[in-house]
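User: For documentation purposes, I need each entry recorded in a consistent format: the amino acid sequence on its own, followed directly by the corresponding structure tokens. There are two entries in this batch. Please keep commentary to a minimum and don't merge the entries.

Assistant: Recorded as requested. Entry 1:
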Amino acid sequence: MKRALVLLLLLVAACGGGSGSKGDGGKAAYIAKAEALCAKANADLVTVKKDQPTSLAAVPPYVHRIVEIARKDVIALSALTPPASDAAAVKAKLLDPLRVQLTEADAYATKVDTAAGAKDQAALFDLVTHPPTKTRADLAWMRTYGFKACVNAADTGSTGK
């Protein structure tokens, strides 16, 4: 169950945390801002991970905390302005895929809520042990672009680092 919850943490990490800022300061400045957001998201998830649920009834609030970190962080990352020459690639290879991951996380949280509301422990256990783990962001592109913390945050297929 703990491994599945770690995968869930990675699923919704997306990237980000804190407030975003507008302004085109070049690629290095954009990456620095984005990496700071992703590092914050990773730290927030480490904090949440310390409070992993010890019962199936504690799973829904745990899932919602993770999804809310992701939501806040995707919004913050989206608020940054990448260099104009890279904007289309950033949108297609990073931001849009992260939004898809967030949509999938919301759907997952709804399923968790439904199972918990019905007191269906078998369904809840199945959800906990089979969270969505498909990485949507283009991790190879992210690495070549210069991201590190954001790659770790977006990589939902890893088992955690």
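Entry 2:
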Amino acid sequence: MAPPADPIALAAKARRGYVEGLLRGVPGVVKAVADGARLMLDRAAEPAVQYKRRDVVLDLQKAIPAWQMGITRQLQAALAGGGMTASRTGDLPPPGRAAAMTLVDNDTIENEILSSRLALAMMDRASWEFTDLRSRMLSLERRDELDAGDVLRPHVLARIVASAWQAAGLNHDTWRVLQDVLHDEFAHFTEEAYHDTNRWLVQQRVLPEVDLRPFIRRSRSTHGGSTAGVLGGGGGDGGGAPRVTAGVL
């Protein structure tokens, strides 16, 4: 079945809805990371490790408002720009320009490494959903590939998360302590956002032959929502530690 007459406008609405869904879900995923950090304190460990975990929890509690606001502002900037791009391509020089690398500070390089690992974790979890969404968007926009800085790409959100983390005064050591929590929460966060956007596009008759795979949505009692509801999709519910719900959407 053919998509509606104005595919470019439909693609723009899908991209905008994806970002709006992320914005709605930011408070929840940030709170889930904080809850995951506190849960680490319950695990047995050597005293030095426990002291470090306590420091991480305290640092995160202080920085959460600034971190959340930083993520929100960068996503809002992407939305204001039409939702197409949201990465700073000038952060690192192009490959092969070794001399220019001396002008890039170590923090920027380390930030890029950590955000790249986060993006890989997102793709490990959400690769099928992203592949389907990419196919639908390319079909609508009649092109061969998404732009390198397209806000739909996982590495763009990963860079936003990492740069907001640094701007909030959180350091790379704190990130490494929480890396498993960050990877898990943001991988699920992204997968849900992709799934909801795919579902909306299927409702608009965009490549329905690309199967909308069964999806198990996590619900968290630690916050009041998730990325559910992108473009009018289903909603998440709240209530305890992160868990997997049995209902398949």
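Summary note for entry 2:
The CA atoms of residues 85 and 149 lie 5 Å apart.
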